[in-house]
Amino acid sequence: MMDTERTACPRCGDRLTDNLLDGLCARCLGALNFDTLTQVTRVEGTAGRDHQVPTVEELADFFPQLEILSLIGRGGMGVVYKARQKSLHRFVALKLLAPERAGDPSFARRFASEARSLAALNHPHIVAVHDFGEAGGYFYLLMEFVDGVNLRQLMQSRRFSSDEALGIISPVCDALQAAHECGIIHRDVKPENLLIDRNGMVKIADFGISRMIHDTVESPVFGRADADVASQTLAAGTPDYAAPEQGASGASDHRVDIYSLGVVLYEMITGERPDRELIIPPSRRTSIDMRIDDVVLKALQKEPDLRFRTMDEFRRTLDEASGTKLAPDVLPVRKRRATALILSVAVMILALAAWLFWGNYAGSENSYQPQITKEPELKFQSLEDAYQAFEENFTELQEARKVRVVGKADGSAPPADLQKKIEKLEARDHQLRAAIAKMADRTGK
Amino acid sequence: MPNAFQTHLGEFHTTRWSIVIGARGQSSADVNASVDSLYRQYLSPLYAYVRRRGYSSHDAQDLTHEFFSRMLEKGWLTSAQPERGRLRTFLLVTLKRFLANEWHRISAEKRGGSSRLVSLQSEEGERLFLADASASSALPDELLFDRNWAMVLMQSTLDHLRHEYARSSRPNDFEVLKSCLTAERGSIDYAMIARELELLPVSARSVVHRFRKRFREIFREEVAGTVAAPDEVDAEMQALILTLGQR
């Protein structure tokens, strides 16, 4: 660094022997750091969205246990890459966040406890967290890779009937309910965070991260978080989806998620987000059952006490309004219905995938690139049989996926050929869906 | 420069001049503590000024020590009016008056042995004095005082920043990033910084940016601790930066 033999500052020519502060030229210290006396918050290269992201090659040095494959998304929260874990041969999503917090020990502690509570969640409809840490100046999360699209992308191509909306919102409610029961609030529920994989499985992403990143609590070591980062969104949540009480620094509880999901539901049905001041009931904007209005409007109440108390309540009320009964004797029918809903979503994905594949898509937040392959056809005696086979296969597939992530229930190690097994089940899954879709078409459903 | 600004608790303590001058409501213990940290922080420029007036190093030590005691005893700080403005000007004006008076001669007999604390800071003051002496002697003593004052604040800022990084999870960052403070924006070698600090290349820019920003913030806080009101901070900062540029 500084040559102590030098007697004159290379930059300004001042004599250095009289003028040194910690080895630095005092004159230059003054001249170079205070050219504007207002606090400088921007510097070239770090302004807002222009922020560069690490390349795939650069990341390799910092994550030797991963094979970094591609950049798959970038948003206000962080950057996401698709990678493969070398040891387990599975795809994972690597999310880099909070570069402005690198080196902040109190943030590191909060991040660790947040990541651990997320990892403990373990719900089929919540993106699983495998690992976390700090590397190369970023905090990172290693998560389940979801091979599909997000709800924003789906919404861009269509509006949803109440049945279709239910197929997506219902599992989200289940997942959020489970999280709330563990004391975890999402705080940033929005279409970009609702991922749907090729099988129509909905998975919620970015749990709890929002609050942690945008927490403007002053760190004793590093001062206030960079104003630029915090200004991208509110104290937590994206403005359009954030509950009114989220803007204030006051307490907000799990009911903020209910509000946000209400906005999502509204948007799915009507194609637009509700005006915050005067909410036009969905039934007046589109042809939908008026009973849905009540559900949506209740979720969107400004006052948390007037909303649903829990996600469960939200889901049950929504179920009823859509005409789905939960009586035990019709349970198989409901299950059939749920399957049909999943299938219909999967069909949407296929259609969307084709559209994406043909290059109509310009990179958007959290966009995933689905890969669809063609499978040979299966034959069944009846639609009934086909459904049966599908359900059996699907259950087995889910179980296998779960084992891959959390291990076997009895604690023993997963079998070595688990991945192969999953791939086989997935292939069969595709075939069954195709067969059912075809048969359903013919019989007029 | 020795680390002159830690209180006995080991924490950094930015003297709030505005607190001191509004100290009528404060306990005398609090006021004394403030004066004490004022003493530790600003003794060296005051000492250097006294030396420039022609006193020997031994006498200069005693005089500055006496000056602070007198300030405490007579309550010069606590009776200061808000219009006193900046600590820097107040101290210099008060010191000049003190030196012009008989008082220091009267107390010559009462002078005891210098405390260890005095000699520690006066080493630093002596260094400033010698630097002033080798600099252009055309500069008025008052301006040299101002410049030394600015140096003290800058050094304090660097020490504070070093301390923050030492407590972070990236303590090695400080020594590497320090050199960025005197590098032209376009000439910073981000690739080298990324390598040295084990950062992803794109992180290097924001790490440097944050370092410089924090440096500015801390300096601003230090300056704010020496003015009576928030709206004076900018002007004081500007004045001090200018003095650093004087040859």
Automatic annotation (TrEMBL), chain A:
The chain crosses the membrane at residues 338-358. Residues 66-319 form the Protein kinase domain. GO terms for molecular function: ATP binding; protein serine/threonine kinase activity. Signal peptide: none annotated. The keyword Cytoplasm does not apply. It comes from the Bacteria. ATP binds at residue 95. This is Serine/threonine protein kinase.
TrEMBL record, chain B:
It holds the Pfam family Sigma70_r2. Keywords: Sigma factor, Transcription, Transcription regulation. InterPro entries: RNA_pol_sigma-70-like, RNA_pol_sigma70_r2, RNA_pol_sigma_r2. The keyword Transferase does not apply. GO terms for biological process: DNA-templated transcription initiation. Residues 38-103 form the RNA polymerase sigma-70 region domain. It comes from the Bacteria. It comes from Luteolibacter pohnpeiensis. GO terms for molecular function: sigma factor activity. The keyword Transcription regulation applies. This is Sigma-70 family RNA polymerase sigma factor.
